[in-house]
Amino acid sequence: MSETSKSLNFIEQIVAEDLQKGYTEKDLRFRFPPEPNGYLHIGHASSICLNFGLGLKHNAPVNLRFDDTNPAKEEQRFVDAIKRDVEWLGFKWDTERYASDYFQQLYDWAVVLIKKGKAYVDDQSSEEMAKQKGTPTEPGTESPNRNRSVEENLALFEAMKNGEFEEGSHVLRAKIDMTSSNMLMRDPIMYRVLHKAHHRTDTNWCIYPMYDWTHGESDYIEQVSHSFCTLEFAMHRELYDWFLDQVYEADKVRPKQREFARRNLSHTVVSKRKLAQLVEQNIVNGWDDPRMPTISGLRRRGYTPESIRNFADTIGIAKRDNLIDVSLLEFHVREHLNKIVPRVMGVLDPLKVVITNYPEGQEEWLTAENSPEDEALGTREVPFSREIYIEKADFKEAANKKFFRLKLGHEVRLKNGYIIKAESCTKDADGNVVEVQCTYDPKSKSGSGTEESLRKVKGTLHWVSVKHAIPAEIRLYDRLFTDESPDTHKDKDFMEFINPNSLEVITGYVEPSLATAKPQERFQFQRMGYFCVDPDSQPGKLVFNRTVGLRDSWAKIQEKS
Ligand code: ATP
Ligand code: MG
C-alpha cells in the first residue's frame, strides 16, 4: 500500500482530527517514555514506531523521555541500552529527557497543591489506607489526616523531603474524592519516602513522585501534545487530567493522553520484569541473548531494523490487546534478508562424499553468484576437490521418486558445480552411512556453457570441500517457551513453560570465503536458512546464530485460516 492510500490508524486519526480542530503542526510534539528498568522489547517497537512515525509524518519533534521515578529498579546501563536500541531501529529523538530532571518542579507544584488544600500528608499504615480505599462498588472512607491544616502539611512534606521519616511511614496524597467510581481518584498517592540513591540524582532526594503525578506533568513541561500509552492506563486518564488541571496555564499546549493496545508476541513474554527474571535466573545468557524478544536480542540474532519496523507497521495499532504469532515476525526478517544478504554454503550435519573419478590432489575454484536477488552483490570463488561434505539428510541409499536428493544410482547437481552420481556407500558397524562414493560428469560444470552444463537434473545440493571447509560453531534456536501464551495461565507461572531445548549448539562446516566474516554480518546458508555472525566470534573461531530457517511457517498458518 502506498503512503497516501493507507488508511490512518485510530491514533493517527486522533492527531489528524486535532489538526482540524485548532492545533497546528507546530503544536505537535510526541514522546517515547520508557522506564530504564530493563531492555526494550518487541512490544516497545510498536510504541516507538507509532510515536516516531507520527513525528516523521508531521515533521514534529519526538522526545526520548526516561520515566525514572523508581531508583530501586532503574539503572544507567538500561538507559544506555535503550538509547542504543532506539537509534539502531533508525529513529532520532529531538531531546533526551528524564522525569528526574523535573523532581524540583514537581516538588514545587506539590507545594502549590498543598497550599490550595488539594494535597495532604498521610502517616497511616499502608494496610489502613488500603482498607479505607473501599471497593469498586463501595465508596471509600476519608483518612483522619485528610483535613490537616495547610501549615502542618507543608511542614510534614518538607520533613519528608529532608529525610526525617522512615520509608513507608509518610506519603503525600492528592485530595480528590474518596467516593469516586474510579478507584484511582480516591486520594491517590503523589509521593513516597524512599531512602535509595537514584542513578542520576544520587541522594539528593529521598521522596520520589509516583507515576501518575509524574507522567502528565512531564508531558506538560515538555509541551507534548499527544501522550500515547497502552490500555492499562485508560482508567488513569481521569487522574492525568485532574493533575494537569492543577497546573495548566491557558496559553500552553495541553497534553492529551490516549491509549492503544499492548502488543503481545506468541511463545514469549513481553514485559521487562519477566524478561529480567529470565536473565537473573540464567535461563538465557543476558538481555541480548538471541532467544530474547528484546531489540538487542533480535539484533544479535540477525534481525534488521527494517524487518522490525515492517513488522510493527504490518501489525499496526489496535484498540484491543491480542497475540501476534511470532512467525509473522520471522516472515518479515526472512523477506528482508532474502533481498539483501549474500548466499553461501555451509553444511550443518556433514556426510563425506568422495568423487572417485576426480584426480587426487587436484582442486579448482568455481565461480558462484552471491545473490540471485541482487546482481550488485557480485560473485565469489568456491573451492572444489575430490572430497566434499554434503548434508546427511541429503543422502539415502534408496528412496522413492519424491526424494530429489542423492540416492544410489541417481544424479544430483552440486550448487555452482558439477553433476555427481552416487555409486556406492560405506557404513559403520551400526549400519549408519559414513561415506558415499560418487562419480562426477567433468563436462557438467555450471556456467561452463557446454551442453552438459545445461543438463537438468532434479535436485541441487549445497556442499563444501572437506580440505577447504572451516569448522564453525553454529547456534540453532527454537522458541523460548513451549506455550503460545506462557504468561496468561491462571494456575501456572510462565517460568513453567520454558522450552528446555531452545538452544542447540553444533559444529558445522562453512566455505572458506567466510573466514573473515565479522560480527553482525548476515548470510543465507543455501537451503539451511539465514545466519548471522555472533559477537562471540573470533578470528579462527567462527560463531554463527541461525536467525531463521528458510521455510515460511507464516504462509502455512495463513493458508490454514
Ligand atoms: P514493561 O512491562 O515491559 O516494563 P512498560 O509498559 O512498563 O512495559 P515502559 O518502559 O513504561 O514499559 O514502556 C514505554 C512505552 O512503551 C509505554 O508508552 C508503553 O505503553 C509502551 N509499551 C510497553 N510495552 C508495550 C507493548 N507490549 N506493546 C505496545 N507498547 C508497549
Ligand atoms: Mg513499567
TrEMBL record:
<keyword id="KW-0030">Aminoacyl-tRNA synthetase</keyword>
<feature type="binding site">
    <location>
        <position position="230"/>
    </location>
    <ligand>
        <name>ATP</name>
    </ligand>
</feature>
<keyword id="KW-0648">Protein biosynthesis</keyword>
<comment type="similarity">
    <text>Belongs to the class-I aminoacyl-tRNA synthetase family.</text>
</comment>
<keyword id="KW-0067">ATP-binding</keyword>
<feature type="short sequence motif" description="'HIGH' region">
    <location>
        <begin position="34"/>
        <end position="44"/>
    </location>
</feature>
<dbReference type="InterPro" id="IPR001412">
    <property type="entry name" value="aa-tRNA-synth_I_CS"/>
</dbReference>
<feature type="binding site">
    <location>
        <begin position="270"/>
        <end position="272"/>
    </location>
    <ligand>
        <name>ATP</name>
    </ligand>
</feature>
<keyword id="KW-0963">Cytoplasm</keyword>
<keyword id="KW-0547">Nucleotide-binding</keyword>
<dbReference type="Pfam" id="PF03950">
    <property type="entry name" value="tRNA-synt_1c_C"/>
</dbReference>
<feature type="binding site">
    <location>
        <position position="211"/>
    </location>
    <ligand>
        <name>L-glutamine</name>
    </ligand>
</feature>
<dbReference type="InterPro" id="IPR020056">
    <property type="entry name" value="Rbsml_bL25/Gln-tRNA_synth_N"/>
</dbReference>
<protein>
    <recommendedName>
        <fullName>Glutamine--tRNA ligase</fullName>
        <ecNumber>6.1.1.18</ecNumber>
    </recommendedName>
</protein>
<dbReference type="InterPro" id="IPR020058">
    <property type="entry name" value="Glu/Gln-tRNA-synth_Ib_cat-dom"/>
</dbReference>
<feature type="domain" description="Glutamyl/glutaminyl-tRNA synthetase class Ib anti-codon binding">
    <location>
        <begin position="342"/>
        <end position="441"/>
    </location>
</feature>
<dbReference type="InterPro" id="IPR022861">
    <property type="entry name" value="Gln_tRNA_ligase_bac"/>
</dbReference>
<dbReference type="GO" id="GO:0016874">
    <property type="term" value="F:ligase activity"/>
</dbReference>
<feature type="compositionally biased region" description="Polar residues">
    <location>
        <begin position="134"/>
        <end position="147"/>
    </location>
</feature>
<dbReference type="Pfam" id="PF00749">
    <property type="entry name" value="tRNA-synt_1c"/>
</dbReference>
<dbReference type="InterPro" id="IPR011035">
    <property type="entry name" value="Ribosomal_bL25/Gln-tRNA_synth"/>
</dbReference>
<feature type="domain" description="tRNA synthetases class I (E and Q) anti-codon binding">
    <location>
        <begin position="460"/>
        <end position="534"/>
    </location>
</feature>
<dbReference type="InterPro" id="IPR014729">
    <property type="entry name" value="Rossmann-like_a/b/a_fold"/>
</dbReference>
<dbReference type="InterPro" id="IPR049437">
    <property type="entry name" value="tRNA-synt_1c_C2"/>
</dbReference>
<dbReference type="Pfam" id="PF20974">
    <property type="entry name" value="tRNA-synt_1c_C2"/>
</dbReference>
<feature type="binding site">
    <location>
        <begin position="35"/>
        <end position="37"/>
    </location>
    <ligand>
        <name>ATP</name>
    </ligand>
</feature>
<comment type="subunit">
    <text>Monomer.</text>
</comment>
<keyword id="KW-0436">Ligase</keyword>
<dbReference type="InterPro" id="IPR050132">
    <property type="entry name" value="Gln/Glu-tRNA_Ligase"/>
</dbReference>
<feature type="domain" description="Glutamyl/glutaminyl-tRNA synthetase class Ib catalytic">
    <location>
        <begin position="28"/>
        <end position="338"/>
    </location>
</feature>
<feature type="binding site">
    <location>
        <position position="67"/>
    </location>
    <ligand>
        <name>L-glutamine</name>
    </ligand>
</feature>
<dbReference type="InterPro" id="IPR004514">
    <property type="entry name" value="Gln-tRNA-synth"/>
</dbReference>
<dbReference type="InterPro" id="IPR020059">
    <property type="entry name" value="Glu/Gln-tRNA-synth_Ib_codon-bd"/>
</dbReference>
<feature type="region of interest" description="Disordered">
    <location>
        <begin position="124"/>
        <end position="148"/>
    </location>
</feature>
